[in-house]
Structures are given as C-alpha cells and as structure tokens.
Design a protein that fits this description.
CATH architecture: Up-down Bundle
Number of strands: 5
CATH class: Mainly Alpha
Main location: membrane
Number of domains: 1
GO molecular function: G protein-coupled receptor activity; olfactory receptor activity
Order of helices and strands: EEEHHHEHHHEHHHHH
Structural class: mainly alpha
Pfam families: 7tm_4
Strand content: under 5%
Organism: Microtus ochrogaster (Prairie vole)
CATH topology: Rhopdopsin 7-helix transmembrane proteins
Keywords: Cell membrane, G-protein coupled receptor, Membrane, Olfaction, Receptor, Sensory transduction, Transducer, Transmembrane, Transmembrane helix
Strand order of the largest sheet: 4-3-5
CATH superfamily: Rhodopsin 7-helix transmembrane proteins
Shape: globular
Distance between the termini: 52 Å
Helix content: over 70%
Length: about 300
C-alpha cells in the first residue's frame, strides 16, 4: 500500500509468476529447507553432546551450522509461503528486519569460516603451540568478536536501507529484501549509497576471500614437511573447508562487488548462497569427516 507519498509495504516478485512453476518452487524449496534444518541440527546436537568432538575445529563448526540454519531461515520460509500466496506483501518493518538478519547471519558465516581457516593454520603450521593459541578461552573470545563484527556490519546495512526514501513503485524484483533490489525502488540518487554498500559488503567478501586463499596457500606450502599420512588427513580437512569457501564466496562476490546493475541470473545466484550453501555445508563436513560420521553413528544409534 502506498500512502502519503511513502511506501508502507512492499510486494516481493519472487522467483517466478507462473502458477505451475510456483507450485514446483513450493515443493522443491520446502524439501531443501527441511533438509537444511535437519542437517545443521544434527551437527549442532552431535557436537554439543559428543565427548569426542571437543576440539576448536568442531567448536567453530557448531557455530557455522547454527549460522547456516539461521541464515537459511531469514529467506527460505518467506519464499516457500509466498510461492502459494496471491498477495506477496511484506511490511516496511519486516523488510528492514530481513535486511538486518540476512546480513547478520551471512557475515557471521564469513567470520566463522575465517576462524576455521585460522584454526587449521595453527594446527598445521604451529602444532607445538596449538593448545596454547587455540585455548577454550581464546576460541570463546574469537566467537564473541565474530558476533560483534556481524552486528556492526548488519547495523551499517540497516542504516543505509533506512536512509532510502520510497515513493513507489513498491514491487521488489527479488524473493527477499536486500539492499540491491531496494536501491532500484528508492526515489533518490543512490550512487553514493551503492558505493557504501560495495565498500562494506563487497569489501568484507573480497578481503575475507583473499585472506582465506592466502591462509590455504600457506597451509599447503607447509604440508611439504609432513608425513604422507599427516598430509592426507590435513588435505582432507582443508579441502572440505575450501569447497565451502568457494561455493559461499563466489556468489557473494558476484552480487556485492559490482555497480548498481541487475542481471536475470541474480536471483538464482542469491538462491545458491542463501539456501544452497547452508544445505551443502553439513553434507560436505559430514561426508568428508570420519570423526563427525563416527560420532553421529555412536550418538544417534545409542539414542535410538
């Protein structure tokens, strides 16, 4: 509804307007979302209860799975519900809340991935000092810093979104509220705000990705001095981490580090990092990690 030259709610265009395709969207994304929740819930509960998964790597994996479940929940439920709704409206306040939540949990995932890479770096390159550097207290402080950093980032994004005046139209060509589609609807010159978005979200994505690449290059270089068995185990763990980094950062960099232009593929790219990545993470970490698989078998077989 548009009232007094200001927009009080928005209409989400969604992935498609075709009624038959919308039914398919409902079925497919409902299954994907439930699988995401189940997979991440299994990892969270297994790490919390299991006595064998007490190392810093699993401490950080716990928070990655938690962030994944929350990140997916910020976008997937509305996409699922809207696919069967005739009126896909979202109020202004709900839209701003979604902007904050999506960036908060997305940024949290980035910071946790950096912490996991740092943990692998210390474990492989500084093995004798590992228990001192990655003590329980330090790991707790690092996670708190990740929460604070995520809050600062998402608050900055929310501040930019709240600065945008909307006079109509109010149709967001997306399936959730984000700054890029909102900038298209603002009745003002958005060049400066877009620069701020790129320098905030874009810089976090690019700098974090480069840091992670450098850390993995250093880790791979240092493995030359390890035994064959040590190299195999370290490569297995680091490969899982690197796969997650690529599938998450690739779409994010594509979306947040470019001028204010939109492409038809934008929504599908967003689906990949908001819904696809949270689903793939638990699969990657469980299928490629013997310790997690064994802990799950022992825990859940015992419970059953």
């Amino acid at each position: 509804m548009i009232h007094n030259n200001s927009v009080t709610d928005f209409i989400l265009f969604g992935l498609t307007q075709d009624p038959e395709k919308q039914k398919a969207v409902f079925g497919v994304f409902l299954i994907l979302y439930l699988m995401t929740l189940m997979g991440n819930f299994l990892i969270v509960v297994t790490i919390k209860i299991s006595q064998t998964l007490g190392s810093p790597m699993y401490f950080f994996l716990f928070y990655l799975s938690f962030a994944d479940a929350c990140f997916s929940t910020t976008t997937a439920p509305r996409l699922i519900v809207d696919s069967l709704s005739k009126k896909k409206t979202i109020t202004y306040n709900e839209c701003m809340t979604q902007v904050f939540a999506a960036h908060f949990f997305g940024c949290m995932e980035i910071f946790v991935l950096i912490l996991m890479a740092f943990d692998r770096y210390v474990a492989i390159c500084k093995p004798l000092r590992y228990t001192t550097i990655m003590s329980q207290r330090i790991c707790g402080v690092l996670v708190i810093l990740a929460w604070v950093g995520s809050c600062i980032h998402s608050s900055a994004q929310l501040f930019l979104a709240l600065r945008l005046p909307f006079c109509g139209p109010n149709v967001i060509d997306h399936y959730f509220c984000d700054l890029q589609p909102l900038l298209k609807l603002a009745c003002m010159d958005t060049y400066v705000i877009n620069l701020l978005v790129v320098s905030n979200s874009g810089a976090i994505c690019m700098v974090s990705f480069i840091l992670l690449l450098i850390s993995y290059i250093i880790i791979l270089y240092s493995l030359r001095n390890h035994s064959a068995e040590g190299r195999r185990k370290a490569l297995s763990t680091c490969t899982s981490h690197f796969i997650v980094v690529v599938i998450f950062f690739g779409p994010c960099i594509f979306i947040y580090t470019r001028p204010p232009t939109t492409f038809p593929v934008d929504k599908m790219v967003a689906v990949f990092y908001t819904i696809g990545t949270p689903l793939l993470n638990p699969l990657i970490y469980t299928l490629r990690n013997v310790e997690v698989k064994n802990a799950m078998k022992k825990l859940w077989c015992y419970k059953v």
